[in-house]
Structure formats: C-alpha cells, structure tokens
Specification:
4 strands, 65 residues, 28% strand, alpha+beta
C-alpha cells in the first residue's frame, strides 16, 4: 500500500461544511487506488490510508451518515 502522501491533493469533506470537526480526503497513487483521510485541523498529523475497495465499502455501508 502507498504511504507517501506528500504530493496528495486534499479535499475537505462536503459533510464538514461549517463544523469544526473537519475531515479531508485525498485520492493517492496511480488511478486513485488509495484513499487518505486526515483531520483538517492537523494537516501534518497522522493519515489513515485505505484501499479503494475499502473506501467503496465504507461509503456503501451508510454508517458514516
């Protein structure tokens, strides 16, 4: 799995709107097969990394709503 996310382009979650609890994601690697997730208030902090398949299952599960 790719762990170098130094050149990633991060996007704020649309669900974070005006809240202070913001999450950012980045599609990392060739063909965006890896998804990084981080706290927007701590951009140099830890990054959770998921495979594209794991991310798809998470979004399809509905538990994030």
């Amino acid at each position: 799995m790719i762990t170098d996310h130094s050149n990633a382009r991060w996007f704020k979650s649309s669900r974070s709107a005006d809240a202070n609890e913001c999450v950012e994601i980045a599609f990392i690697g060739e063909a965006a097969r890896v998804v990084g997730v981080r706290d927007s208030k701590d951009p140099s902090g830890p990054v959770l990394v998921f495979s594209g398949e794991q991310w798809d299952r998470f979004l399809g599960s509905g538990i994030w709503r």
